[in-house]
Known about the structure:
The chain is α/β, with parallel strands linked by helices. It is 34% helix and 29% strand. It starts with a helix and ends with a strand. 18% of the residues are buried.
Amino acid sequence: MKPIWKYILICLFTILVTGYFVFSLWYFSGREKGNVCRNLEIKMADSSSIHLITQADIAQILEQNDLNPLGKTIKYIRTESIEEILHKNPMIKVAECYKSPNGTVTIRILQRCPKFRVVGFGSYYIDIDRKPMPVSTNYAAYVPVVSGRVTVSMVTGKMFDFVSYIEDNPFWNAQIEQIFVREDMKIELVPRVGDTIIILGTLDDYQSKLEKLYKLYLKGFNVIGWNKYKFVDLEYKDQIVCSKVAQQVAQTKGMYEEKKDSIIASKL
Length: 268
């Protein structure tokens, strides 16, 4: 009799387990089908440092595109559609959407990060991925400014590398406020302090140009003052040319002449 009872017990156990799984599948799928979204969570992953877009903006985008999940059945909420429409916003780098059985839909937003602002033929940012992005109406990023005769190919190429170099150098990052591209495509640097304009020329070999200027700051300008000269020209290989506007002796003529001083860079 033992083998028969053992067989019967195994069959009963199998039936109970199968019945439990069938019931669970029916019960929970039925609950999910009838469950609706009662809560929408919008999380800004980097809101402590960037404010290009707000939670209210995200909610408005969903409302305008009939994608607001509130009150809708969880089962029929298409998270991929929400992600797709949010990725079309130029301020958003990553948008992730997922839903929970408790009726909550969560959206996680990662904003694009501006590296510097361009003010030339248009006004826009270049982000840390070398891509142009529009200026936000909500937030003005405190970043370097590149102005003048600027092209997109320039600011996403050599200019991007130059701005990165400035940012990574504590001295120049504190010293340089604006980068200006002249009509002849030569670069001028506008310092935060004083009226002296630094003529960099082209972006070729900018590291050595700034290095010799740094030595001039330490060994020269700290002694004679930083505002003695109006222009400091770094274009020449072995010298720095400093020029100033000085009034002529014959003041009645009301004319000015430019005086230049040449400093041998190798002696700094």
